[in-house]
Amino acid sequence: MSNSPLNKAVVDAKIKELRISDVGKASIREIVALVNLVEEETGVKYIRMEMGVPGLPPAQVGVDAEIEALKKGVASSYPIIDGIKPLKEQAALFVKNFMNVEVSAKSCIPTVGSMQGTFSAFLAAGFVDKKKDTALFIDPGFPVQKQQMMVLGLKYETFDVFGFRGEKLRVKLEEFLSKGNINSIIYSNPNNPAWICFDEGELQIIGELANKYDAIVMEDLAYFGMDFRRDFSKPGVPPYQPSVAKYTNNYVLFISSSKIFSYAGQRCGLMVISDELYIREYPDLQKRFESPTFGTTIVLRLLYSISSGTSHSAQWALAAMLEAANSGKFNFVEEVKAYGEKAKVMKKLFVENGFEIVYKTDLGDPIADGFYFTLSYPGMTGNQLVENLLYYGISAIALDNTGSEEEGIRACVSFVQTQQFGELENRLRLFNAEFQVK
Q: Of 52, 114, 299, 365, which sits 20 to 30 A from 311 (CA to CA)?
């Protein structure tokens, strides 16, 4: 690596300092810590693609509303655990306007980011039926959700959806569900990291099988409306954000403010439970948590125990952002299209320098340009690619961290600045010059 812009010895020393046994298999946070140390030591800025950090300013309507709420003194009082009324009402309206799904305000619950929402939902679903002790992840997916399952001590199974699109998905899901031990099905749409988007046919399959086998579907909508091939930005006007909620009442949706509103720092997301599931009674769940229904277990047992509610002022911010979107005053989709524009340029730079897109198509169509894309390099495993790129000032995580069976890496575009494109191109040329013959 004689042409590397970094001193290999410095990188190696920092890997040793952090006691990372295999840097190719490092977690997101380990890569973050490593890159921070190398940047501090060398002064060389990395092209950072390892973490899905919003790269845009927060929605001003939210900032203004939160400041106003703080001025009114909300910081001195505890929020209602299941959320302030304006937020719950605007959340239900948002789901109607942008998903064409009816849900009551009661069933829309603010959480400390979607992470707290998934943590609570995983825990509740793990005890709805003592015969069903396993969750099923449709991978690839967000690595930390598996970590949540590990922390909770709950079982899970996974499969890579790469070869099971369309009707093949039904066969694969039945393979797991027919065993009778699956309590929930978990996936993201658009997908982190492959950026594939389940279509209505696939969502119908998931919904029908959830009904047949009585499984709870957990749909992570962190990148709501960000399949930029279609315009989901107009409230009450089709097309709508695709969702399994049209095909089953056994659903929990997670809507994040971190990506669509760039409001990550205040940790305020939404968990939307179907009205039917909210009031459903599960004898085994009651025995475990002494709470009559799925919804009350989530709110009065789990969220109460974990954090006793979500930031009071941030709830007013999210309520204002949702209201602005619902009224058509704030086009949140237009605001985040910059991610797609960056992805288009970055993909081109990588492909021109010997890389290949791993998840290339979405049911026969070219994959959309969005928040993430996936890359491989001939002759390298994903773990080797992560490690080798680190010496060229480019950071990412391996696809096997996300549950993918494909060799490659996940690239996140959000934290890469447009003024870094020239440096990215230069480093990729050096990388390709070093490794293409090998």
A: 52
